[in-house]
Amino acid sequence: MPIYMDVHNKAQGVTVDDVVQAHVLDLKVQGEYGVRYLRYWFNPEAGKIFCLVEAPSVVAAVTVHEKSHGMLPDEIIEVEKTLVEAFLGSAEESADVATVPEEPGGEPVLDTALRTILFTDVEGSTSMTQRLGDEAAHRLVQEHNAIIRNALREHRGNEVKTIGDAFMVSFVSPR
Fold this sequence. Notes:
It is a single chain. This protein is an alpha+beta fold. Helices cover 35% and strands 29% of the residues. The protein is built from five helices and nine strands, in the order E-H-E-E-H-E-H-E-E-E-H-H-E-E. It has helices at 16-29, 58-68, 81-88, 125-132, 134-154; strands spanning 3-8, 36-43, 48-54, 75-79, 99-101, 108-110, 116-121, 157-163, 166-171. Strands 2-3-1-4 form a four-stranded antiparallel beta sheet. It has a three-stranded antiparallel beta sheet with strand order 7-9-8. It has a two-stranded antiparallel sheet with strand order 5-6.
């Protein structure tokens, strides 16, 4: 079944409690339409709510919002579950608004769904391979990749995609 991210762009003045209550109402109605609202994120500063939903169609997803609380999304985008998880974390069903630790080991704060994206690439890797040979260059790239992955774990980054010596990663915080 397709997965969609619905986006509410006009949620200024909405509180966390309002969003939680709307999600609870969605959960009560969703079974009637073959829909599963999985997770949601709230960004009060930007006035945005993001809902991840598994639904047979866009119409079914919107109908659940319409019947349960009337807060209709401004747009709905079909998404790949693996990409949602790479950027935003778990796409598993949860009744709680998404939170993240502010600092490693710190108290959870509201997850606004904003991410910092970083791209890396080893400069001159083709000439390095020509200079060192395939095997030695491969070992260096593997060492580079291990360093990047260790840094991601240390700073709560997610590896979105890797191609050879290049990474695309996301972080919950720019810090």
